[in-house]
Write a structure and sequence with these properties.
Layout lengths: L2 E3 L2 E8 L2 E9 L3 H12 L6 H4 L5 E7 L2 E7 L4 E2 H8 L4 H21 L2 E2 L8 E3 L5 E3 L6 E2 L19 H4 L7 H16 L9 H11 L12 H10 L10 H5 L7
Antiparallel strand pairs: 1-2, 2-3, 3-5, 4-5, 6-8, 7-10, 8-9
Helix pairs in contact: 4-6, 6-8
Amino acid sequence: LLGRGASGYVRRARLCDKLLAVKRIAISDDERRRQTFNEISTLVGCTDLSAANLITCYGVRCIEGNIEIAMEYMDLGSLGDLLRRHGPLPEEALGSLLDQTLAALHHLHKEKHAVHRDLKPQNLLLSSSGKCKLSDFGCVAELQDSFGKCGTFVGTVPYMSPERIHGGEYSYASDIWSLGLTIVEAALGHFPYARCNGYWGILQAVLHESSPTLPADRFSPEIVDLAAQCLQKAAVDRPTARELQAHPFLER
């Protein structure tokens, strides 16, 4: 067993000489299970995913009211695992991770016209060869065009953008907010909002408090600025993944 979450678990499997990670998701609602199956099925066999730092999906099936996804195996687990084991990442390592994550987001947004909707450290998978890949497509929503909007409330609540918490429409910029929280968490070694007040306290903080920042006396001006741009409260003020790829922090 590689990991367990609220809605399922991930186990390691072998097919011929290839190691796989098989994720089982428990979805009780028949319509949601059908929709999720269809969304994930569109990614199976896409040869451009691996090159774009998106985890490769080899197959998907429904079994006993669950969905099972056979995926590429990443031997270091998730960024969340790494932070729990070793604490905050140095800026150099974080730069490499961000460069690869932004490539994944750009491909997802501009080539697939999709919003990930659940970007967080647990969904960034790492390998000992230095690869970082975006995973967990169970929440992905495809938009009809590059100006499309979503209106559904799915994903992990603490990483949701203000516009999602408000319950309004949202688009690609919501993933950029989640990326900003992930940057701050990876740099500090802990989630930037206090968890002691539960989900409700986090939601109130996201909506009514200033966005989290990285201390200027501990971090370079470039990464402080990059995180701040991602965590703009207004979605329209956040840069795109492509714009962030040209940020000075990633060009050092």
